[in-house]
Amino acid sequence: MSSAQRAWEWFVGKVIRLSGAMAIVFVILIFAFLLRDALPLLRSASLREILLGDTWLPTSEPPKFGMLPLVLGSLYVTVGALIIAVPLGLATAAFISEVAPRWIQEILKPTVEVLASIPSVVFGFLGLLLVGPWLMELLDLPLPVFAGLGSLMLAFMAMPTIVSVAEDAIRSVPTALRENSLALGATRWQTIRRVVIPAARSGIIAGTLLGLGRAIGETMTVLMVTGNAAVIPEGLVGILRPVRTLTATIAGEMGETAYATPHYHALFMIGLILFVITFLTNTIADIAVRRSGGVAQ
């Protein structure tokens, strides 16, 4: 190896290490920035009132910064999206990897991944103008915007992530496991359900958690289709009623909030909560991906 090649490899290695270090630094700086503008809210309200308060009225007198309705609204929409997206995504991934002929795989997989490139505002318009009114008539609902509509839209936005990661995990399962199962008399469906999917479990969990991160961080779609009512959802009926999510609150109120007011700091507190949730979700997903690496071996 020539000295020029060694110098080039040394340079590329340093650039890669610097890029990784800068990514970590950026995450820390974002956290510090959110923390700096969120902590002053504790002068106006206690942490208990912020996290467990049931009233979000930041412009009233006195202001109320209870974020429980926003957290529960995000929870309803996100969990509903996962209930729809995970079975569909897993079934699609298993079909692409294990059942579909190659020519169908070459068409279906790119088609599913195209969903990831569609802007979120397009899903919002589809839900607001087409799906919402149709579901309102079908289910006899008072309004065409509600939590379940947000879940439905987010499910199709999260599916490409779930399908991609789950399909890779299923494909990485050793062929010997499939052959051994078939040799013992199991049908193709039994092999997929009892051998392949359990062997790819870690990767499927990782895809689900990454889809969760995609859903919980979405803004425009939920802002347009969930109704933006800062109320605590009541039981399963709450999925058919308007709610407000954490992200929609920031998007809807930040532009009209005066700088350095309690309301301003409350929105940054919401951002801090979202950052922590997303960070924990991605961390768990990364751990699951690392564990799934053993399947391919």
Structure explained in plain terms:
By secondary structure, the protein is mostly helical. The chain has a single domain (44-296), classed as MetI-like (MetI-like fold, Orthogonal Bundle). Helices cover 73% and strands 1% of the residues. The protein has helices at 3-38, 47-52, 68-99, 102-114, 120-139, 147-171, 175-183, 188-199, 201-216, 220-225, 246-253, 262-296; strands spanning 56-57, 64-65. A two-stranded antiparallel ribbon has the order 1-2. The protein is globular and about 70 Å long.
Question: What secondary-structure arrangement, pairings included, does this model have?
Answer:
Elements: H1 3-38, H2 47-52, E1 56-57, E2 64-65, H3 68-99, H4 102-114, H5 120-139, H6 147-171, H7 175-183, H8 188-199, H9 201-216, H10 220-225, H11 246-253, H12 262-296
Antiparallel strand pairs: 1-2
Helix pairs in contact: 1-12, 3-6, 3-9, 4-6, 5-6, 6-9, 7-8, 9-12, 11-12
